[in-house]
Amino acid sequence: MPGCSMKVNYQKGWIKSQAFHLQLKNLQDQTLPSLHVKPPTRTQNKRIFNFGFIKKLKFQMPGKRSIAQVVKCVAILPAFFIQTLCAQQAKTKPGNPVIDGWYADPEGVIFGNKYWIFPTYSAKYRQQVFLDAFSSTDMVTWKKYPKIIDTSIIKWAHMAMWAPGIVKKDNKYFLFFSANDIQSKARNGVKDDTLGGIGIAVADKPDGPYKDYLGKPLINQFYNNAQPIDQFVFQNKDGQYYIIYGGWGRCNIGKLNENFTSLEKFPDGNLVKEITPKDYVEGPTLFIRKGKYYLMWSEGGWTNGTYKVAYAISDSVFGPFERVSTILEADSSVATGAGHHSVINIPNTDEWYIVYHRRPIPNLDRDHRVTCIDKLYFNKDGTIKNVKMTFDGVRRKLKGK
């Protein structure tokens, strides 16, 4: 929307006028009429529930614009304020998004009597040089642990720290992540870039401090043409740990050795097996329910509203995984670009939650993604019901809390 300015930043329930002015500017990339908005002064800030400051906004129309064009531009405001209102309410009662800020690819886990979320910081690649963590006892109020790991700790990483996955083993917390967005010769036309890939950090507590476990990537090769990103670490029923990962439409599974220092070869001599299901793009996660293995992943484009989640069911950790259906996708009344998720199961119950990112409406930037939690339900035959994205979110205290 040429000449139009609007950027929102909600902090403790307040809308900052300067931020509001900047976000309208970001709308320039959308096909809406030119509209200049003069931001309210500092004294004109109001609590969001009041909306009083809207009346004080001065709209200046450069040149001739039709009433229809003005209406088209102003029509974005209700959706924008619904998003902001829900974000504020998340501070005191259930609501989506669950944490403030732009975060994606959330890994949701339970350690003890706390929920934890380890997300990607959603920004330009060269700004993605750290990872934050969040904890909660009820999925409503979240405590932030900033920069639990960064490129000053992982010396071989310099950008694109993505999609953390974490497991507890032998009273240590192993944080898996990918870094540097390495490219293969088939992609860059020069040679395989191996300075990056999937790494591991280790700590005595979920919030750190972490240190580089290997001093180098665990996986930095393009096995089966899969980019080494989006790792998920899974413990099978026999106690064996596997790493499931892959971008560029390929999904691999590898067997981790006892101390997580390398992959063990399979009987055929290979370090990984390909388990790519139909339409797979990236972001795999795996869980067991009632003896069945559920592989879930993301499809479509991560930069736009086509992003979505699908799944398959198998009797084995190695598949075959035949695609069943899509269960999470854009909803024009809530959000778009929903995907790259994880799943939380309340211990000793059949109660499940999906932790995912989505794009607010209107979506004003490639990296504007927020982390949300909704219920995950199953049909009697074991298939997964379509997820209903909500602004309401969930509240679920763990036993003993």
Which SSEs are present, and which pair or pack?
Blueprint: E1 10-11, E2 14-15, H1 17-26, E3 36-38, E4 58-60, H2 67-74, H3 76-89, E5 103-111, E6 114-121, E7 130-136, E8 143-150, E9 162-169, E10 172-179, H4 185-188, E11 197-203, E12 211-212, E13 232-235, E14 241-245, E15 252-256, E16 263-264, E17 272-274, E18 282-289, E19 292-299, E20 308-314, E21 322-328, E22 335-345, E23 352-360, E24 370-376
Antiparallel strand pairs: 1-2, 3-4, 5-6, 6-7, 7-8, 9-10, 10-11, 11-12, 13-14, 14-15, 15-16, 15-17, 18-19, 19-20, 20-21, 22-23, 23-24
What this model shows, in words?
The radius of gyration is 22 Å and the shape is globular. The chain has 2 domains: 10-89; 103-376, Tachylectin-2, Chain A, CATH 2.115.10.20. The model is unreliable at 1-77 and 86-90 (pLDDT under 50). By secondary structure, it is mainly β. The protein contains 4 helices and 24 strands. The strands form 7 sheets. Strands 13, 14, 15, 16 and 17 form a 5-stranded antiparallel β-sheet that branches. It has a 4-stranded antiparallel β-sheet with strand order 5-6-7-8, with no helix packed on it. Strands 9-10-11-12 form a 4-stranded antiparallel β-sheet, with no helix packed on it.
